[in-house]
């Protein structure tokens, strides 16, 4: 990979990591609200899955930022994003309207994020990462 490709990977990793770290922190500060939101969407075992989601979003997000075990972190976050999409953006169960359109947009956005994560899982984190400082 050339310098530009590695710089793009680094920038993408910084943005992708922030996309997971910031909501992970927000889930801590708004724990009760997020618990209610997840329960309203029929998520099972919220008392276990919410802390696990927070842990995965912050730790795997940080791993992607610094490029430490980035392939594994990206793969885990792709799976988490898929599960979140199924439970939290279930546009198919909604009546047509603005709310359904909004959830469809969120679902498609998450598919795009999963695509980026799977690319990192396949290709790695690039030259500017802890994975490649050996």
Task: Describe this protein with a few key phrases.
single chain, 77% helix, 134 residues, 5 helices, mainly alpha
Task: Tell me what the structure shows.
By secondary structure, this protein is mainly alpha-helical. The chain is built from five helices and no strands. The longest helix has 27 residues, at 3-29. The protein is globular. It starts with a helix and ends in an 11-residue tail after the last helix. 22% of the residues are buried. The model has no long low-confidence stretch (mean pLDDT 96).
Distance between the amino and carboxyl termini: 17 Å
In this structure, how is the largest beta sheet organized? none
Q: What is the typical, i.e. mean, pLDDT?
A: 96
Which radius of gyration do the C-alpha atoms yield? 16 Å
Number of strands: 0
**What are the low-pLDDT stretches, counting only 5+ consecutive residues below 50?**
none
Structural class by SSE content: mainly alpha
Tell me roughly what share of residues is in helical segments.
over 70%
Helical run tally: 5
Give the percentage of residues in beta strands.
under 5%
Q: Give the overall silhouette.
A: globular
Order of helices and strands: HHHHH
